[in-house]
Amino acid sequence: MQDHQSVPLTDFIEYPQEEMLHRAQTFLDTSKRRHSIRSFSDKPVPKEIIETCIKVAATAPSGANHQPWHFVAINSMDVKKKIREAAEDLERSFYEGRAGEEWLDALKPLGTDDQKPYLEHAPWLIAIFSQKKGGIHAEDKNTNYYVHESVGIATGFLIQALHHSGLVTLTHTPKPMSFLTDICGRNKDNERPYMLIIAGYPAENATVPEHALVKKDITEVSSFL
Fold this sequence. Notes:
It holds the Pfam family Nitroreductase. This protein is an alpha+beta fold.
Protein backbone atom coordinates (compact mmCIF):
# COMPACT_ATOMS: atom_id res chain seq x y z
CA MET A 1 0.00 0.00 0.00
CA GLN A 2 1.29 3.48 -0.85
CA ASP A 3 2.01 6.00 1.86
CA HIS A 4 -1.05 8.06 2.74
CA GLN A 5 -2.51 9.97 5.66
CA SER A 6 -4.54 7.71 7.93
CA VAL A 7 -5.92 7.37 11.43
CA PRO A 8 -6.27 4.28 13.63
CA LEU A 9 -9.47 2.24 13.34
CA THR A 10 -11.05 2.80 16.75
CA ASP A 11 -14.79 2.23 16.26
CA PHE A 12 -14.83 -1.39 15.06
CA ILE A 13 -16.70 -3.72 17.41
CA GLU A 14 -15.80 -7.41 17.34
CA TYR A 15 -18.69 -9.62 18.44
CA PRO A 16 -18.51 -13.27 19.50
CA GLN A 17 -19.29 -15.45 16.47
CA GLU A 18 -22.52 -16.70 18.03
CA GLU A 19 -23.68 -13.11 18.41
CA MET A 20 -22.54 -12.33 14.87
CA LEU A 21 -24.77 -15.06 13.50
CA HIS A 22 -27.67 -13.84 15.64
CA ARG A 23 -27.21 -10.30 14.39
CA ALA A 24 -27.02 -11.49 10.78
CA GLN A 25 -30.19 -13.56 11.20
CA THR A 26 -32.02 -10.68 12.88
CA PHE A 27 -31.08 -8.39 10.02
CA LEU A 28 -32.25 -11.01 7.52
CA ASP A 29 -35.59 -11.32 9.31
CA THR A 30 -35.96 -7.54 9.25
CA SER A 31 -35.04 -7.38 5.56
CA LYS A 32 -37.65 -10.01 4.69
CA ARG A 33 -40.31 -7.60 5.94
CA ARG A 34 -39.26 -4.98 3.40
CA HIS A 35 -41.78 -4.77 0.57
CA SER A 36 -42.36 -2.42 -2.33
CA ILE A 37 -45.70 -0.75 -1.61
CA ARG A 38 -47.89 1.18 -4.05
CA SER A 39 -50.59 2.32 -1.63
CA PHE A 40 -49.36 4.98 0.77
CA SER A 41 -50.99 6.79 3.66
CA ASP A 42 -50.74 10.57 3.73
CA LYS A 43 -49.75 10.39 7.41
CA PRO A 44 -46.94 12.91 7.95
CA VAL A 45 -43.38 11.75 8.50
CA PRO A 46 -41.06 14.15 10.37
CA LYS A 47 -38.29 15.68 8.28
CA GLU A 48 -35.73 14.54 10.87
CA ILE A 49 -36.41 10.88 10.06
CA ILE A 50 -35.86 11.38 6.34
CA GLU A 51 -32.79 13.50 6.99
CA THR A 52 -31.26 10.85 9.23
CA CYS A 53 -31.89 8.13 6.64
CA ILE A 54 -30.18 10.27 3.99
CA LYS A 55 -27.23 10.63 6.38
CA VAL A 56 -27.09 6.82 6.47
CA ALA A 57 -27.06 6.70 2.65
CA ALA A 58 -24.23 9.23 2.60
CA THR A 59 -22.00 6.83 4.60
CA ALA A 60 -21.89 4.43 1.65
CA PRO A 61 -18.53 3.61 0.07
CA SER A 62 -17.78 5.34 -3.23
CA GLY A 63 -15.09 5.52 -5.88
CA ALA A 64 -12.14 7.53 -4.48
CA ASN A 65 -14.56 8.61 -1.71
CA HIS A 66 -15.94 11.28 -4.05
CA GLN A 67 -19.52 10.60 -2.88
CA PRO A 68 -21.04 11.32 -6.32
CA TRP A 69 -24.63 11.71 -5.20
CA HIS A 70 -27.21 14.29 -4.24
CA PHE A 71 -30.54 13.57 -2.54
CA VAL A 72 -33.52 15.90 -3.00
CA ALA A 73 -36.15 15.21 -0.31
CA ILE A 74 -39.54 16.46 -1.49
CA ASN A 75 -42.43 17.16 0.86
CA SER A 76 -44.01 20.07 -1.04
CA MET A 77 -47.45 19.23 -2.41
CA ASP A 78 -46.86 21.52 -5.41
CA VAL A 79 -43.59 19.83 -6.33
CA LYS A 80 -45.00 16.34 -5.82
CA LYS A 81 -47.93 17.23 -8.11
CA LYS A 82 -45.55 18.38 -10.84
CA ILE A 83 -43.56 15.15 -10.54
CA ARG A 84 -46.70 13.02 -10.72
CA GLU A 85 -47.98 14.83 -13.82
CA ALA A 86 -44.64 14.54 -15.62
CA ALA A 87 -44.16 10.89 -14.63
CA GLU A 88 -47.66 9.86 -15.70
CA ASP A 89 -47.19 11.54 -19.09
CA LEU A 90 -44.16 9.32 -19.65
CA GLU A 91 -45.82 6.24 -18.22
CA ARG A 92 -48.77 6.52 -20.61
CA SER A 93 -46.53 6.16 -23.63
CA PHE A 94 -44.63 3.39 -21.84
CA TYR A 95 -47.74 1.29 -21.24
CA GLU A 96 -49.17 2.12 -24.65
CA GLY A 97 -46.36 0.24 -26.33
CA ARG A 98 -43.04 2.05 -25.93
CA ALA A 99 -41.89 -0.57 -23.42
CA GLY A 100 -42.36 -3.52 -25.73
CA GLU A 101 -44.55 -6.59 -25.23
CA GLU A 102 -41.99 -8.64 -23.30
CA TRP A 103 -41.42 -5.91 -20.73
CA LEU A 104 -45.12 -5.27 -20.29
CA ASP A 105 -45.75 -9.00 -19.84
CA ALA A 106 -43.09 -9.08 -17.11
CA LEU A 107 -44.89 -6.28 -15.26
CA LYS A 108 -48.39 -7.78 -15.41
CA PRO A 109 -48.01 -9.88 -12.20
CA LEU A 110 -47.28 -6.65 -10.31
CA GLY A 111 -50.47 -4.96 -11.51
CA THR A 112 -48.73 -1.71 -12.43
CA ASP A 113 -50.11 0.83 -14.90
CA ASP A 114 -49.62 4.47 -15.86
CA GLN A 115 -51.42 5.83 -12.79
CA LYS A 116 -49.03 6.87 -10.01
CA PRO A 117 -51.16 8.50 -7.28
CA TYR A 118 -48.58 7.65 -4.63
CA LEU A 119 -46.26 10.26 -6.15
CA GLU A 120 -48.63 12.89 -4.81
CA HIS A 121 -50.15 11.04 -1.86
CA ALA A 122 -47.04 9.78 -0.03
CA PRO A 123 -45.51 12.29 2.40
CA TRP A 124 -42.01 12.13 0.92
CA LEU A 125 -40.33 11.62 -2.42
CA ILE A 126 -36.54 11.38 -2.54
CA ALA A 127 -34.98 12.10 -5.92
CA ILE A 128 -31.45 10.69 -6.18
CA PHE A 129 -28.99 12.26 -8.59
CA SER A 130 -25.59 11.00 -9.71
CA GLN A 131 -22.79 13.46 -10.37
CA LYS A 132 -20.20 13.27 -13.15
CA LYS A 133 -17.75 15.60 -11.43
CA GLY A 134 -17.09 16.47 -7.80
CA GLY A 135 -14.87 15.28 -4.99
CA ILE A 136 -14.74 15.11 -1.22
CA HIS A 137 -15.43 18.84 -0.97
CA ALA A 138 -18.52 20.57 -2.35
CA GLU A 139 -16.47 22.95 -4.49
CA ASP A 140 -14.35 20.18 -6.11
CA LYS A 141 -14.70 19.67 -9.87
CA ASN A 142 -12.75 16.44 -10.33
CA THR A 143 -13.89 13.49 -12.39
CA ASN A 144 -15.95 11.02 -10.34
CA TYR A 145 -15.24 7.30 -10.65
CA TYR A 146 -17.52 4.26 -10.45
CA VAL A 147 -20.47 6.64 -10.30
CA HIS A 148 -23.22 4.14 -11.12
CA GLU A 149 -21.88 1.59 -8.66
CA SER A 150 -21.38 4.16 -5.89
CA VAL A 151 -24.84 5.70 -6.21
CA GLY A 152 -26.39 2.23 -6.40
CA ILE A 153 -24.81 1.26 -3.09
CA ALA A 154 -25.94 4.52 -1.47
CA THR A 155 -29.47 3.95 -2.75
CA GLY A 156 -29.50 0.50 -1.17
CA PHE A 157 -28.35 2.00 2.12
CA LEU A 158 -31.17 4.55 1.89
CA ILE A 159 -33.86 1.95 1.23
CA GLN A 160 -32.73 -0.17 4.16
CA ALA A 161 -32.46 2.85 6.45
CA LEU A 162 -36.01 3.92 5.62
CA HIS A 163 -37.25 0.36 6.20
CA HIS A 164 -35.31 0.04 9.45
CA SER A 165 -36.82 3.32 10.68
CA GLY A 166 -40.33 1.92 10.21
CA LEU A 167 -41.35 3.30 6.81
CA VAL A 168 -42.26 1.61 3.54
CA THR A 169 -40.78 2.49 0.18
CA LEU A 170 -41.14 2.13 -3.54
CA THR A 171 -38.48 2.60 -6.19
CA HIS A 172 -39.59 4.47 -9.31
CA THR A 173 -37.51 4.89 -12.46
CA PRO A 174 -39.53 6.48 -15.26
CA LYS A 175 -37.64 6.75 -18.56
CA PRO A 176 -36.39 9.30 -19.31
CA MET A 177 -36.11 10.99 -15.92
CA SER A 178 -34.75 14.33 -17.12
CA PHE A 179 -37.92 16.09 -15.88
CA LEU A 180 -36.65 15.52 -12.33
CA THR A 181 -33.60 17.65 -13.07
CA ASP A 182 -35.79 20.57 -14.09
CA ILE A 183 -38.39 20.22 -11.34
CA CYS A 184 -35.76 19.81 -8.62
CA GLY A 185 -33.61 22.64 -9.97
CA ARG A 186 -30.47 20.56 -10.38
CA ASN A 187 -27.47 21.12 -12.66
CA LYS A 188 -28.22 19.25 -15.88
CA ASP A 189 -24.60 19.59 -17.05
CA ASN A 190 -23.23 17.65 -14.09
CA GLU A 191 -26.08 15.62 -12.60
CA ARG A 192 -28.27 12.83 -13.88
CA PRO A 193 -31.45 11.53 -12.19
CA TYR A 194 -30.76 8.04 -10.87
CA MET A 195 -33.91 6.98 -9.05
CA LEU A 196 -36.99 8.25 -7.25
CA ILE A 197 -37.79 6.75 -3.84
CA ILE A 198 -41.32 7.06 -2.45
CA ALA A 199 -41.37 6.87 1.34
CA GLY A 200 -44.01 6.94 4.04
CA TYR A 201 -46.50 4.76 5.89
CA PRO A 202 -48.54 2.08 4.11
CA ALA A 203 -52.23 2.74 3.50
CA GLU A 204 -54.61 0.60 5.54
CA ASN A 205 -55.54 -1.32 2.38
CA ALA A 206 -51.93 -1.75 1.19
CA THR A 207 -51.15 -5.08 -0.46
CA VAL A 208 -48.09 -6.92 -1.73
CA PRO A 209 -48.21 -8.75 -5.10
CA GLU A 210 -47.74 -12.48 -4.65
CA HIS A 211 -45.28 -12.34 -7.52
CA ALA A 212 -43.03 -10.04 -5.47
CA LEU A 213 -42.84 -12.52 -2.61
CA VAL A 214 -41.03 -15.11 -4.73
CA LYS A 215 -37.32 -14.82 -3.95
CA LYS A 216 -34.61 -17.03 -5.41
CA ASP A 217 -33.02 -19.58 -3.13
CA ILE A 218 -29.55 -18.95 -1.72
CA THR A 219 -28.25 -21.74 -3.97
CA GLU A 220 -29.48 -19.83 -7.02
CA VAL A 221 -28.00 -16.47 -6.14
CA SER A 222 -24.64 -17.40 -4.62
CA SER A 223 -21.65 -19.70 -4.92
CA PHE A 224 -19.05 -20.53 -2.30
CA LEU A 225 -15.59 -21.50 -3.57
